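If you are new to this repository, start here. Below is one unmodified record pulled from the training split, so you can see the exact layout before writing a loader.
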Amino acid sequence: MSRIGKKPITIPGKVQVKIDGNQVTCSGPKGTLQYSFHPDISFIQENNQIVVTRPSDTKLHRSLHGTSRAILANMVHGVSEGFTKELEIRGMGYSVNVEGKRLKLALGFSHDIYFEPPDEIEIKAKRNAISISGIDKHLVGQVAAKIRMFRPPESYKGKGIRYKDEYVKIKKGKTVGG
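And here is the target side for that same chain:
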């Protein structure tokens, strides 16, 4: 039995979950999320908890069990509290600011990079820090990874965009032999 899959999901008082076959809709103070799960996975809602069950112990059902439970738990958490990813920029002359809804990145290239986030994502920036927030955990992580790809941290000076508290191993440079 999946350790993650068998844990029940507690629904906060301000969140409503509607289960219609394999279609699940979560509504809360931050917004609404909808997801279509695999038809073999079933959900049982009792009181303020949801339990995810699988029909058999085949490899497919075992893999879907924990994944489905994690996706549903992230949906419930997202509509009630939301998710946030923090990025930081390191390097001389590198800067970031928000112009309207677009993110303007000056990363040492001959031109500035303008990034238009999806409508569900909110981006805040000041000098060398970027905060990405939204209700969909997958989308927040995807936008953070895309912004990081504009200038990933390099391993000799550590310059670039990195996640907050990310450790980048710094390599030694060239040395003169003698």
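Two things worth knowing about this chain: The longest helix spans residues 59-80. The mean pLDDT is 93.
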